[in-house]
Amino acid sequence: MSDKRGPKWPWILLAAVFLITAASIAFDKYKARQGPPDPLPSEIKPWFGPRNQLGLEQAAQVAVDGARARLALNPEEWLRQEVLARALVRRFRATGAYADLAEADGLLDKGMAGAPFPAGPSLSRAEVSVLAHRLDAAGKGLKRFFAQVGEPDDGESAGAWSLKGDIAFQRGDVKAARLAFSRAEEYDNNAAVALRQSMLALRTGDPDLARRRINAVLRAPKLSRYVKSQVGLQRVTIAYATGDWKAAGTWARFSERFFPGSPLAMAHVAQQKALEGDVAGAVRQYEAILAKAPLPEIMDALAFTLRLQGRGAESRAWAEKAGAIWTERYSVMPEAAAAHVVEHELALGDPAKALPIAKADAQARPHGASLILLARAQLLTGDARGALATLERAEKTGWRTAGLYLAMADVQTVLGDTDAAEDAREDALDLNPKATDPAARYIWFGHD
Predict the structure, then answer these.
(1) Domain span including residue 73
(2) Which SMART domains match (predicted)?
(3) For residue 123, is it within any domain?
(4) Are 362 and 390 contacting, i.e. CB atoms less than 8 angstroms apart?
(5) 168, 176 in Cβ contact below 8 A?
(6) Per DSSP, what are the bridge partners of residue 204?
(7) What is the pLDDT of residues 122-155, one digit of tens each?
(8) Phi, then psi, of 45 in degrees rounded to 5
(9) Cα–Cα dist 200/93, whole Å
(10) pLDDT value of residue 365
């Protein structure tokens, strides 16, 4: 027996060495992929700008008033029209007032029409068009920008290539988006580029890269409180996508403390309370936010939370209030409001009303998020096979999120293919171990 066993030991030892070496290499690659750990919230410092939401809104108002007064001195000058438009967009970002976005949109149309080609507010035109989800108009603005005779500075070039990436991403062309963002990074490796690259990485199944990009921005020295608070909320989104609810709570509360008074940051904290089991506290916080900032997205979050608690009458009351505001916003800027209206109707209203809006949005912006909403609308209106085709189309674009695979599992269940449904749920859980946790239904902000 000993003669037979002896020669095998070297091979066993050699195999063990190979296994240990392979494991070490794999672990080193994993560590490299993970990158450095998250910064501590206490390590993050601001640079300049308003200290809280009130200061942000006051600064935005001062900028709008000043730009409007200067435009009154020469109403046909496109540069003054552009300055007011950009001030209005800053106020829109601060308050969510769609009237400001609509006015900015109109001013830029006038500026483009009144300026001799290829001059004019072309980059601002493209930026606001992307913000309003009008991709054709954005593309025309960029074409005019690149037709300029003079060489743009690096910041402008980075902005233009970033917008090209935004357009490609929303059109479902992940490869073109990645290339455009890389080109933007060559001109100016700034926070705006990094945030775009982070979201692209997250939605295409690479949360580690998404987290590293965000962490670099959080560590950057020259960014305002408002910007870093918003970046913190994107870090929350990454945490939700990977089922790391503890990290989500850390960064939601960081954003709330770092930039006091932000309705969106406070709403993330309210949502986190529900995830942590304090649903009553979440409801109270949502109500307190809405008393000062009656934003329809927060009304929707509250209405859905109440619905999950079986408080139907209260849920319907808030849903009706939100629905009225979304209807008004849709009438002012339909493309900008479309996805919000669809979400509202699917969760709290009438899926049949959502369906045509979802179809139009997915036709204009055929990326994963729009296609998943369309598939949900198709499923809830009885077209399961159409929903499956829509989700397969989303997957072919490179979209990889737990939300996509959960939607696919729902569709396959209705179609009676239990094996395919189970496979889809496993794919979702591979990306997000808490994807099927009942408490995950409370995630309204930052879901995928």
Answers:
(1) 52-150
(2) TPR (SM00028)
(3) yes
(4) yes
(5) yes
(6) 400
(7) 999 999 999 999 999 999 999 999 999 788 999 9
(8) -120, 145
(9) 21
(10) 99
Question: Tokens standing for 286?
Answer: 């949502």
Distance (Å, whole) CA 280 – CA 285: 9
Q: What is the dihedral angle through the alpha carbons of 57, 60, 61, 64, rounded to the nearest 10 degrees?
A: -160
- For residues 249 and 272, give the distance between their C-alpha atoms in angstroms, rounded to a whole number: 6
Q: What CATH number is given to the structural domain containing 118?
A: 1.25.40
Interval 39-44 mean pLDDT = 94
Please state the domain count of the chain.
1
Is residue 440 situated within a structural domain? no
* pLDDT tens column, 209-250: 999 999 999 999 999 999 999 999 999 999 999 999 999 999
Asked whether residue 83 is assigned to any structural domain, the reply reads yes
Give domain status of residue 143, yes or no: yes
What does the alpha-carbon distance between residue 137 and residue 141 come to, in Å, rounded to a whole number? 6
Cα(44)–Cα(299) distance, integer angstroms: 31
Question: Bridge-partner residues for 360, per DSSP?
Answer: none
Give the Cα separation of 117 and 422 in Å (integer).
57
C-alpha–C-alpha distance, residues 148 and 121, integer Å:
11
CA distances (Å), origin 253, targets 167, 259, 275, 287? 32, 10, 14, 18
Q: What is the Cα–Cα distance from 127 to 111, expressed in whole angstroms? A: 14
Beta bridge mates, 339: none
* Residues 269-283, mean pLDDT to the nearest whole number: 99
Average pLDDT estimate for 339-365: 99
CA-closest candidate to residue 267, choices 243, 242, 291: 291
Report residue 278 as tokens: 């304090």
H or E segment at 68? helix 53-73
437 Rama sector, left if φ>0, alpha if ψ -120 to 50, beta otherwise: beta
C-alpha span between 227 and 259 (Å, rounded):
9
